[in-house]
Design the sequence.
């Protein structure tokens, strides 16, 4: 008898999401490219590990994916032993990755050729929110399939909202993340300015939180202290943050917008990656600000 739902991609977000689906009482079939991750999943009650992405697609009526790169999304959906190879007509797939809208649309078209209905629902939230079932999902694609996805989305998060045709959910996520990545860069610069002025940064952070004025944000609330201390707090890792900063810049450039703030944000994350910090959390961008001097640029 087939399981209730499938899931491919058990990374920093995916593993937490799968655990919450299983905790809600659903039988889940999963696959991940890493053997050690498959071993971890196999020890969780309610979770069955398949031999490949195609094998997952063959066993379930609904299938979610959560993957790190455009290349991995394409490989899982249309590559060897992928979803298109194993899935039957009527399967509903839903990609929770943050990807360019044109990729979401091309995957939807490729799946349609096999009679598979593809949706996208990128994740709004951090790993700790995924752990606690507090993420949120914008959903796009054919609205008729949202009701089928809804029970699983509700098991993984605190809610979802239908936003339009294929690719629209990805656009909203990229733009929202563009704001977040730019916040990180700007907050880092302001806090380094505080340090060099000799201000008590703890006092300044507490003041901004208490005032809750224009300088306050969710990002500031959660991460201002650790931008100063360098402590690791299970924030998103640098590579997806760098990817999203570039995607936001590309969306602006695609509508002929000169976007210096998004461009600088993307440049800072690119510099962090070039310095070999790919295994660090995205908060590592504060090191870029700390190392910069106006006098060095002249």
Sequence:
């Amino acid at each position: 008898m087939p399981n209730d739902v499938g899931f491919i991609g058990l990374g920093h977000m995916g593993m937490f999401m799968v655990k919450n689906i299983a905790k809600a009482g659903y039988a889940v079939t999963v696959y991940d490219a890493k053997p050690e991750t498959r071993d971890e999943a196999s020890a969780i009650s309610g979770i069955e590990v398949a031999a490949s992405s195609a094998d997952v697609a063959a066993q379930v009526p609904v299938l979610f994916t959560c993957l790190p790169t455009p290349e991995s999304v394409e490989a899982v959906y249309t590559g060897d032993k992928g979803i298109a190879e194993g899935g039957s007509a009527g399967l509903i797939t839903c990609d929770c990755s943050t990807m360019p809208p044109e990729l979401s649309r091309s995957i939807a078209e490729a799946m349609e050729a096999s009679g598979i209905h593809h949706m996208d629902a990128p994740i709004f939230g951090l790993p700790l929110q995924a752990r606690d079932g507090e993420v949120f999902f914008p959903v796009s694609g054919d609205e008729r399939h949202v009701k089928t996805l809804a029970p699983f989305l509700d098991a993984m998060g605190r809610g979802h909202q239908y936003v339009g045709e294929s690719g629209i959910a990805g656009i909203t996520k990229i733009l929202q993340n563009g704001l977040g990545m730019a916040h990180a860069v700007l907050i880092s610069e302001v806090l380094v300015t505080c340090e060099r002025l000799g201000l008590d940064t703890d006092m300044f952070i507490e003041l901004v939180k208490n005032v809750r004025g224009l300088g306050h944000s969710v990002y500031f609330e959660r991460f201002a202290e650790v931008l100063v201390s360098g402590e690791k707090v299970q924030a998103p890792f640098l590579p997806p943050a760098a990817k999203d900063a570039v995607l936001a810049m590309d969306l602006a450039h695609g509508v002929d917008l000169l976007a210096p703030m998004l461009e600088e944000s993307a440049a800072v994350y690119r510099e962090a990656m070039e310095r070999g910090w790919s295994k660090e959390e995205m908060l590592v961008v504060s090191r870029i600000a700390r190392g910069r001097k106006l006098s060095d640029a002249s």
User: Anything to note?
Assistant: The chain has two domains: 5-164, 171-292. The beta strands are 5-8, 28-31, 47-49, 62-65, 92-95, 117-120, 135-140, 157-164.
